[in-house]
Design a protein that fits this description.
- The complex is a heterodimer of chains A (307) and B (271).
- Chain A is mostly helical.
- Chain A contains ten helices and five strands, in the order E-E-H-H-H-H-H-E-E-H-H-H-H-H-E.
- In chain A, a hairpin with a 4-residue loop joins strand 1 and strand 2.
- Chain B has 271 residues and is an alpha+beta fold.
- Chain B has four helices and 13 strands.
- In chain B, helix 3 crosses helix 4.
- The chains are: A mainly alpha (307), B alpha+beta (271).
Chain lengths: 307, 271
Amino acid sequence: MSLYLPIAEMSVNIFVILGMGAAVGFLSGMFGVGGGFLITPLLIFYNVPPAIAVATGASQVVASSISGAITHFRRGSLDFKLGTMLLVSGLIGSTIGIGIFAWLRELGLLDLLISLGYVLLLGIVGSLMLTESIRAIRRASKNGPTSLRKPGQHNWIHRLPFKMRFKKSKVYISVVPIAALGMLIGILTSVMGIGGGFIMVPAMIYLLRIPTSVVVGTSLYQIVFVTAYTTMIQATANHTVDIGLASVLMVASVVGAQYGVRVGQRLKAEQLRALLALLVLAVGVRLAIDLVIEPKDVYSIVEGSST
Amino acid sequence: MMRICSPIVATTFFLSAGSVFGAEPLSGPPVNVTSLQETIDIGVSTNEIAIASNFSGADITVFGAIGNTDPLLQEIGQYDIVVTLEGPTEDITVHKKRRVFGIWINTESMRFLDVPTSFSMASTRAESSALVPLQYGDIEANVDSINLRKVRFGGGSVDVDAFREALRRQKINSGLYQERPGSIRFISGNLFRATLRLPADVPNGVHTLHAYLFKSGQFVTQRNLPLRVVKTGAEQAVTDAAMNHSFFYGAFVVLLAGITGWLASIIFRRD
């Protein structure tokens, strides 16, 4: 059955889109991530224009993150002060990102930079996660459970100025890395259509030394608002949000996520992280292959009246 | 692009775009004919193609008739008809990739102005025909004759032909440019029927149907009809909203996402 996408101006197979949404939702529920870093490349592989894929991907992340954010809100497992700092810097980053997005599109470099950005990002984050989780698995097999947080251990980040106390997270750190992290995530949301949870969570754990108990809730709180804002801006500035595509993806992914959560609960945390790392790397490698191998046709065409 | 119609002779043929061809006088002798100039006329059952959410392409059938023909020439197949459907024009940029540090990057580009976004053609003459080739001149009667002369250079390349060929190839591969040579059938006498295929991602806007008549390979006359491709109902409403009320559209998408996520958390709630 085909579905005509009014904004993308193309006809797609609704079952393919449903399948993509459900699969990404399943994985996002299993690993506790938004899934934007999977949905955007998948849509691009399916010939959806990258601009539409990025903008619509952001709206899908809103849907997949909000139920998690509600759960954490109910349990109180999020740091509002920290989350709001990340959020404000994220909104600034997202606005800058929209500008970059429009500029790259004009230069005809958007597709390349989206792919290149994904390869770098997924490659780095995937390798870091993989080595860390393998180490954790080894440790766990030797001497039982380990804690990611090592109290008292400080790194260069803790020597930065403008320190602030975050009671809920029980940390006293500089606002500079927080603002930088938030902005980076905001830019990535606009340019690449990702929520950024898979970067923010490790960054908060390893760099900012935030307790794991509040990390996921806080990052989800930030992601919901930054992706919602990005969707709004993409819709108003670039007209690249396809509501048809978005709604099919949303419904499929939130349903898929519920089953993913159930599977995820049966796996150990470090195993889960190792699997997620492999998945992240696989998507990165797939995109890298496209960049490196000789294309079937070295020519490509772009329609439109803008220069 | 709007080609200027070149009716050489005033005919009494009147054919509104929306009328069914059968209702028209088919071969009534034209009044005030000063020469025996051949004529061609076409009609379609609709002047509007509606795109709904289940649109997956469409065939449009064009009926037509040729008049004032020389029976002898017609008997030996000297008359050729080409019917085309040209989509609205847009500027198209062709990028060429080159390997830079192991990565394939768009390095050169060329911009073609006012290129039809889609093109579908049917003709009487099969591709393999050994007859005198049709003299197209400036007529865009097949994919190879589509005007790609207006060019703006983006990067230093001078190999315009390679870029032109690439544009045509890409358009053919995506199904937006198609040719069906030899597919026009004469139903009886001067009456013919042509079927053109609209691909699923046919661009919206005003398309133009062209019918060209050739005699012994030489262009004689042509006839044009507009054909509108429009999104209907919900599709049009969505496009309007996205373009003209983009703030509310964006807010609605976010709201939809919020409700979807929230409903899921209620329906599947386990704690």
